[in-house]
# Entry
Amino acid sequence: MPMWAYKGVDSRGKQVSGVKDADTPKALRGVLRRDGVLVTDVAVARAGKTAASSMKKGSGINKDVDIGAIFGGVKKTEIAAFTRQLATLLKAGIPLAESLGALFEQIENPRLKSVVGEVRSRVNEGSSLADALGKHPRHFESVFVSMVKAGETAGNLDQVLVRLADFMESAIKQRSKVVGAMIYPALMAVIASIVMAVLMIAVVPKITTIYEDTDKVLPWNTQLLIWVSAMLGANWIYVVVLVVLAVIGFRTWRKSPGGRAVWDRMVLYLPVVGPLARQIAIGRFARTFGTMLASGVPLLRAMDVSKDILGNVVLMKVIDGAREQIQQGESIAATLKRSGYFPSVVTHMIAVGERAGQLEQMLTNVADAYDADTETQLTRMTALLEPLMIVVMGGAVAFIVFSILMPIMDMNPTI
# Structure
């Protein structure tokens, strides 16, 4: 059934609005009339839009619906939960259209509810689930759509959806670990920068005024401290603007094709960070590639979609080159090994999988091993960063204190 955005007046005279499914506007009015709502306006609801955006501007739609949809968005966890619930219903033998209808009724997020409603409408009109999901690339990525299409073709859509849910939950879990490991060092760096700025701009100038009336030559470190403090105190606005412009310029450069290629190549060769970034990218590629192959997606199509998961243009070019050589009859392991970017352990496991006819299982094993190793390295790196940042911050504070106290200690004999 199509989705309708409506506005009206309830039994207490209060304006209400929302999105609801019905065969026709007349049927919608009848349903809402039984609920005590007098409908004043109806419009077709577009997926990803609220009742307010589906109607004409100034219609008086309830603002709560609009704000909730615009700022709420659709989280990856919600898509994963929807996928698993749909798989459960299909396994129970419930037809696809009915399963989508049941899920539509219980979804609370207005934006996801609207998307699922339009997907269900397209399925009822005869469209395949993959084609219906493909109309919403913001919420269902090419990996998702390709796997659903393969599942529909092979007749094992419920099993593919279970794999998809597992895949998405694993990706969410790994991303949470990476972000969680980086939050503490980033927070410490911000706090340290703020503390140092306050010391240099507000505290140091007041203390160093005692040296103005002395004729003694100050130590080099004290002179440096006074100069930096004076410079920041007089030009802190320009420093902030310069930092902001530098960040914006760097982000713009990194998004450009040439800048991204240079940056991605440089990241891979950075000490400590480079090997970890490569490991995370290869692990994600292996899991995506293996999950798509297990779901029945053709090999070349699976490689084409999985390369986007890498997030590094250098590694993406490697996959493009491997894809062309595979079309000419080369093995996957041999082409990846020649690139020099994939570790020998990975290419060896892929070669074993190709020979044994269990490539998807080997790719999953590679992903599991890399995820476990990534978690260990992140834990170790975080454990090392904490004392290192404390030492750096302590050293900076010690330099300030020492630079202030040295002239005072030299003045004691004179006093």
In short: Residues 46 and 116 are 11 Å apart (CA to CA). The radius of gyration is 30 Å. Residues 359-411 form the longest helix (53 residues).
